[in-house]
């Protein structure tokens, strides 16, 4: 077996695409990173799992830059890039851990927005940077509507802003509800009537939601912005900020998700327009990101690759919004000013995998010396 082999666990459809010769630019970056570090990588998936010792895997044939499938021993270091929503996937990854492999970017349970919030609320130094958040229920909706004038209702499991609802109280007209239009290009507005309340309460019965205070985000030209902070474990095994990207909401819209029409922008310019100090805000954001990663690691020791959404108020205070364990950064690749960050996002986990592999090899050597 190749002693420098790193395994990357990927979704089944991705595995089939690579097998057929269609390799994404992200997977190509993993290969480039491995080559730079003197490592080799293989891709494998759930349907290639045979037993604790063998897996079907795809490795690159250097003679023609194509991938071929073979069966080999389970890699000793595995970087998970598959969704943790699937219980079977979590069971397989945990089985690999139990059989001696170092597996990272995996949690024992699915990371719902509510559960993450509960974990972070336990840390007093982080709790002050969290919006008020309750689990979606009739009682909690009523409670937060009594406390705040603006609320978000978010699915516990969603991405790119899908399924988000927004409630806002107008002083004289009462409550209104906003939700994405069918074409996903804007927000529809309607009165929050008793019928609407009943509809929301029924949603709570069939799907998990959080109800969350709206943070008064700083704005640029009347458009709110927030940050995606990528924090990963590096070649020394420590958490480090890989990079930060500012996201600006579309005109007359509420959320900054680039997949929903938001756009990347220059954080320095945004902060200057808001009379905020870039070095001061950056330090506060980085401190919060490192604190969040360290706090989550207490419960999830096998995490190493996080994308944090962090908002900034008009006073420059950072607020944690949500955490992504399997960020997708294709839109970074298309922006010249973010391309280097995009490359580093792919190279850092491979460098961390190399650190784990060296750690594993040292452990084996130590055991062999003890036995000899």
TrEMBL record:
Matches recorded under InterPro entries: YheC/D
Organism (species): Metabacillus rhizolycopersici
Name of the protein described by the UniProt record: YheC/YheD family protein
